[in-house]
Amino acid sequence: MTWKREVIEGPYNSLSEILLIILTGTSLFFQFYTGAGLFLLCLLYFRAHKWYLENIGKDLRLDQPPKRVRIHCEEKGNWEVHFTNGGIPVWGAVLKLTFKDIVEPSDHPFESYHGGNIEVSVPFSMGKGESGKISLPIVGKRRGLCRLTKVQVVIPHLFGSGKVLLDFMEPVKSTIMVFPNPAPVMLDKSPDSHHIGEVPALNSLFFDVFQPVGTREYVPGDRFQDIHWKASARTQVLQTKVFAPAVKKEWMIMVNLSEKYSITRDLEAIIKHTAYLMHLAVSQNISFSLVLNIRSLGITPFYYLPAGTGRKHQQKALEVLSTLSTDDSTIPFHIVMQHLSIRQLVPSVLIAAGVLTEVDKDRLSKLGSSQKNIYLMHIEDKQGVVSIWKRKSKMSS
């Protein structure tokens, strides 16, 4: 446990000690023993004062578990900091916590500083051998990952001037993640992904080969393995198995975060609209995958969350959206689309978001020519809109 200690004593303490030593010696020389005893008691007080400042807080530990609290904007939570004191009791101290304005204390005064930093001071006391926690009520203000950038304990002297400053030098593992607020989007046409085989259709079906429900007469084009031989022998006419229908619905939300040579200026709006689309997919039990053209060290050179459903899958995607910043490094969007196309990871419904270059549009057109339903999410008058991609593909050279 690493603390940076700074002892601040009164400006006249050392001078007072020297003066007391001289007065004690003078009193003994003139045999003024009462005065010498009084001066010795004062000198003893100053020595005890110095010993206290040099040893207080040496066995104070910050035992913070690696915990991440997840909340939404305007949602309340608690930020807990755990301490253990194995040394001299600490009384009348102040704990100062500094963090970004991603969250704010909800029931406690605080100070705001330049750069979006917040400092809050909390009374702190702890006896010898005690363990406890400081719980700070907070409320989420904007999306992001919030860490404690500074933890300082200010311990004043109990009976004199001076204080000790303890600055924690290790990173605090406890963090608070604030999810983005979903911003509604207008859907020109609801993205559907029902399809028979590779042909998209609004009321199309897959067939579950493990659930045959009957037979029908054979027609040219039926698969050989679907022929029901026992029924064919009984009726003397070739019979084909009929299977129970199964519908698959899947979206791929692909976001381009780059605009020319930097992160897009509509980053916050795109994140909020993307969060809404994910919420819509979960509410309608639609499987969705998320693709971002930020560099990643995983299997793909960009961020790719495979298709999934449910709240846990949505939470994984929201965690990534919460940590996006203008400092992220991106790769060209058309390379992302080309990579997904080669690996055949693009489902029947693709929703693209962000600023598209001509190269990006050409790649989208090629994806649309392979029986994919392409939708474009864009912003019109600060309103998110999802519309069908209507650009025709060019002739490839």
Concise summary:
The chain is of the alpha+beta class. The protein has 7 helices and 25 strands. The strands form 6 sheets. Strands 1, 3, 5, 7, 8, 10, 11 and 12 form an 8-stranded mixed β-sheet that branches.
Account of the protein in words:
With 397 residues, the chain is of the alpha+beta class. The chain contains seven helices and 25 strands. It has helices at residues 13-29, 33-55, 229-235, 267-283, 310-323, 333-342, 358-368; strands at 3-8, 60-62, 68-72, 76-85, 90-100, 103-105, 111-113, 117-126, 130-140, 144-156, 163-168, 175-179, 185-187, 195-196, 199-200, 206-217, 239-246, 250-255, 258-259, 262-263, 287-295, 302-308, 349-353, 373-380, 383-388. The strands form six sheets. Strands 1, 3, 5, 7, 8, 10, 11 and 12 form an eight-stranded mixed beta sheet that branches. Strands 13-25-24-23-18-21-22 form a seven-stranded mixed beta sheet. The protein has a four-stranded antiparallel beta sheet with strand order 2-4-9-6, with no helix packed on it. A hairpin with a 2-residue loop joins strand 19 and strand 20. Helix 6 packs parallel to helix 7 (358-368). The longest helix has 23 residues, at 33-55. It is elongated and about 135 Å long. Mean pLDDT is 82; it is low at 194-206 and 393-397.
| Largest β sheet strand count, sense and barrel closure | 8 strands, mixed
Task: Report, as a whole number of angstroms, the end-to-end distance.
Answer: 64 Å
Briefly note the structural class of the backbone. alpha+beta
* Percent in helix: 10-25%
- Given as residue ranges, the uncertain stretches (5+ residues, pLDDT < 50) are 194-206, 393-397
Strand content: 35-45%
Mean pLDDT: 82
Helix tally equals 7
Q: What does the overall shape look like?
A: elongated
Computed CA radius of gyration, to the nearest angstrom: 34 Å
Number of E-type strands: 25
